[in-house]
Records
---
Amino acid sequence: MIEDNKDQKNRKPAVPYDEDNYTHNIRKDNERKLDRRSFMKMMVGAAGVFAVSTLPWGAIAAKHLAAGDKRTYPKNKITALSDIPVGEAVEFAYPGEHDSALLVRLEEGTFKAYQNACTHLKCPVFWSKEEGELVCPCHHGLFDVHTGKPVAGPPKRPLPEIELAVERGTVYATGVKRYEA
Amino acid sequence: MKRSYYGVIFLSLVLLACIVFTQQVVNAFFYEQYVKVLVFAVLNILMFPLAFWIYRKERNVD
Ligand code: FES
């Protein structure tokens, strides 16, 4: 490349140039790679990436639609009442074994449970007894423990609430509440 | 030299629409509004041929 340049210096350019597209001063490799046309090409490619990225969401949505809206949930035991003092929380998984969730005992007979993957970027939300709120450690998102609604930080959607039943000294998870919106 | 920026401008708008549609798809998905998901997913997919068409039209314009 360097020798090439030297070569060019010593040679007297012909006047007028024996070309008509005025590209004689373009020497570097790939110098014309990012002209407008290839930039547009790149933008078309980006549109393609967006299109492909929505395919899985669409496919799963179609599957849900085809299956109908009657989802059934198992009734899972979460914990015994004696294992969760007032003001404390226990983690569990519901409905699948990878859907981590959090049960909080607010008062003697008041329980709240949410799927605790933060609605921002899926960090696990934990129960902060001192602050009385559900806290996401990643970007300090806060959720209202009574409603699951985000009250501070980046999250915009509420945490999905889990329906509970208390029977004979045991707390059960019976379903996941639908988002209403 | 006067050149046309229409291609780049229109493609930018298409990409903006892509971002909006993708965001809508994800939101609708988490709110379990699956019909909305499908609508926006299809819109997003349609953006690609549109972008390609704009490119074809504008690539040879100086
Ligand atoms: S992941 Fe929870 S605030 Fe960002």
---
Amino acid sequence: MYSVGYEDLGTPTPPAGTAAAVTLEIDGTQVTVPDGTSIMRAAALAGVKVPKLCATDSLKAFGSCRVCLVEVEGRKGYPASCTTQVAAGMKVRTQSDKLMSLRRGVVDLYVSDHPLECQGCPAHGHCELEDIAAQVGITQTSYAPGAAHRPQAKDESNPYFTFNPELCIVCSRCVRACDETQGTLALTIQGRGFGSKVAASEDEPFLESECVSCGACVEACPTAALTEKSIIGLGVAERAVGTTCAYCGVGCALKAEVRGSGADTEVVRMVPQRDGKANHGHACVKGRFAWGYATHEDRIRTPMIRKSIRDEWRPVSWEEAIGYAASELRRIQAKYGVNSIGGITSSRCTNEETFLVQKLIRAAFGTNNVDTCARVCHSPTGYGLKNTLGESAGTQAFDSVMQADVIFIIGANPTEGHPVFGSQLKRRLREGAKLLIADPRETALVRTPHVEADVHMQLQPGTNVALLNAMAHVVVTEGLVKEAYVAERCEPEPFARWKAFVSEERNSPESSEGVTGVPAHMVREAARLFATAGNGAIYYGLGVTEHSQGTTAVMAIANLSMATGNLGREGVGVNPLRGQNNVQGSCDMGSFPHEFSAYRHVSDPTTRALFEAAWGVPLQSEPGLRIPNMFEAALDGTFKGMYVQGEDFVQSDPNTHHVNAAMESMECVIVQDLFLNETAKFAHVFLPGSSFLEKDGTFTNAERRVSRVRKVLEPLAGYQDWEVTCLLSNALGYPMHYAHPQEIMEEIARLTPTFAALTYEKIDRLGSVQWPCTDEAPEGTPTMHVHQFVRGKGKFWPTEYVPTSERSTSRYPLILTTGRVLTQYNVGAQTRRTNNVVWHAEDVLEIHPHDAEVRGIADGDWVGLTSRAGDTVLRAKVSEKIAPGVVYTTFHFPETNANVVTTENSDWATNCPEYKVTAVEVVQVNQADAWRRRAEAERALPHGGRKQRRDPAPA
Amino acid sequence: MNIDLLIKMANQISEFFQGTTDPDKAATDVATHLRRYWDPRMRKQIVAYCEERHGAGLTNTAIAGVQLLAQQEQKAAAPAAAASAGAAAPGPKS
Ligand code: SF4
Ligand code: SF4
Ligand code: SF4
Ligand code: FES
């Protein structure tokens, strides 16, 4: 069922851009709507509710239930208002005795199969059948008892929702939601008449079927046949609060439905907002269902301190914890210098919180040693796009994909990592757009119902740049460059240099085939398609950025888009798929050590003067330490204290043993988080964090869309995260007084040109706003670089392919690459504490059958995974989805901690770690427990139990 | 800091820029990159290393870039030292 309080208009908005206005008359009232609108929708817009059962405004009209009949003057019969479109001058009647009797007949039949035993039903008060029966005055059926759907067993296999066939009216809304909204096509209606029923896959329990638990069918169901278990447990919600998902960079608009008030407020469920501009009424298993972590018993509710990381934690008051933290930071600065401390902002916190943490570090600590977890994911995007196009952000709105003719996905797995965008993408692909994929693995999009990639380039990890250069070679040497576009919009000299560079024979698909492993004819076909098939859009993820040449690859992507004229309008563009919900925002807010908000360098005197005037203190003009540099400086003894908000880099950052050794040398680590995470093992002060349900603020998604996060629950430990930052700042003698995050946003807008015209009032009014939001673009900017590039002329860069130093050797003959799965999120701190573990309870190592066989490894065996940095143990999954010579795993579970084996290699420009390429060996192990115990014991020891091997990469 | 790591990073930077332009300009680009993105203690260390060990292990472009950086920093330090005497600096720099 859709969200409480939502007014369903019955059928979707007609496609934008069509549409002359049409005026008609409904029940004597003049109504004007766009052409293509259904009578049902037009009536609803005029405040007239036509009864309906099989229609809902998130799905195409279906016309099966016949309860929505109307009379149209001059027409015979009783057309269904959901499938009949408006026409100019039409006169419609929605109420008459005849219509009432027809509707009663229909409802009577439904009720014969679905008795109105509404008291005690979980949907009571929010069921469309119940409402319509009341509307037409039916309380029980007139049919004699006979064949019916009951009794049939419930399917309770899915941890989050139940399917009760007895309550099903076979309206097909669920089936259509799974097809149209989600694109998984898991459901069908089997059988006929009273024998018809909804079946998942081959009539399997939902959990065992292809269902990915997105909840679209549950949201679409008009009765309690498909219902959230939380509603069955708690009852229908009393009210709904609009907020934004705190998981991935899609940033779905959600409604938190709640019961009770004040401290007794309980979340009943989360439902997608149908008017959400990033998600259009869709969500995934994480945002929709996996929010239980917010009230998990592992949440820490009291501040704690300890002198040494070997001591027990001591619960203390907020005052004592903050006082201790502040005195330690000042003590360290007095002893080791002002730049001996720093901090890390979180891509999971709000813009306001992130802005405040970097302000605290720059103004109150007096140093630029601030960085953010974006360092380890999308920092190359910022650098690469700034230097080519002029702005460190994706160029499009998600909706732009609906205008794309050819979609090139490189190093991204949207159906797992960005599921709601993945569904939209599949919709466009089902409409016929071409699909090119470059990925070492056969990701789901390569072959999925009604979608098959036109070209899948299964390249060797670490060779993105060689592949992109080869594609550019084809574009240039086969005369496919959009010369007029380039001449008008790009700097001529760098273009000429780039053109000469990619034209060189060594960059041809034939020459690079040996490096990339991709047959030359495939690269040629892909390049030709991309350059000639109309609107070409590139989507990329961490498979591009997390390499020693991550920045180079981002630049190569921008080069390819500029050369083919694919920037500056809908349907095209360079689209980074951001991992965490607020990666874009945390970067925008000035979290990098060298930049203030809106990517302005700290050495720029004008910008610095602006901030100095606003903040009332002198600010440093030199860049500070990046996260990996902080670890190095810590080992050197020049970096001793840090404040870490909402980030678990000990689990998420590469080369865990090295990070552990660095962390052990710190004198004061302040961790602010929901849980005692891996980083907290090295902390001296623990400050309880607040979840997204407990705070106000904004998140910025991958399409630069700023959306509101609204407080639904009282903060469990008493404070929202931004309030804790203020407390710490005040204790350090730098006063911060804000009554509400709105005041922080006002400060951001004053100091940040791209946010200049952004206000909470505007976000509330428009739903969300894409920056730049300025006087010139007061309602935001969906598409960037429309008339010209932000930097003026676009700049091409030659992108020489430099192989990573991390190569397979006789000792480490395989290449490990990493990724993520749909149901888990990042280090898993949240999703591991939800029922999502039924789908993915541990990290596994995917290995090709050939590599498995020569090592005597069978599916499900325990295997040891070793690199020059460390070792871990996990289960093998023998799979042909991965190429020979490559193995693949996720990093969601600390027990496995895949980052024990990843190395210190990093991107040349940004130090973004090279997670995607590690030379490893895999061996079958009989005693997994002994391995794991040893690994755990090592982790608990100083220096991670081993001396750091810092030898150069094996030759 | 671990000098091997700094050498590796400087070399990686030089490898990018030497492919993009002529050698002189590449050295300038390397120097600019280091100045804009490296914390002063990292810059100080690579400059010192480059001088003491004559750039051992660094690519030619990296050496040229680091040497240029050293000159630029020297130049900047002279007037800045004079100007900052008595000024309210944010704090001692390590
Ligand atoms: S489960 Fe719900 S949505 Fe699906 S057919 Fe039955 S009543 Fe309709
Ligand atoms: S939950 Fe989603 S994937 Fe599963 S059956 Fe329903 S719509 Fe399909
Ligand atoms: S797609 Fe991303 S933002 Fe949307 S519900 Fe899923 S995790 Fe949340
Ligand atoms: S709502 Fe129109 S036919 Fe079902």
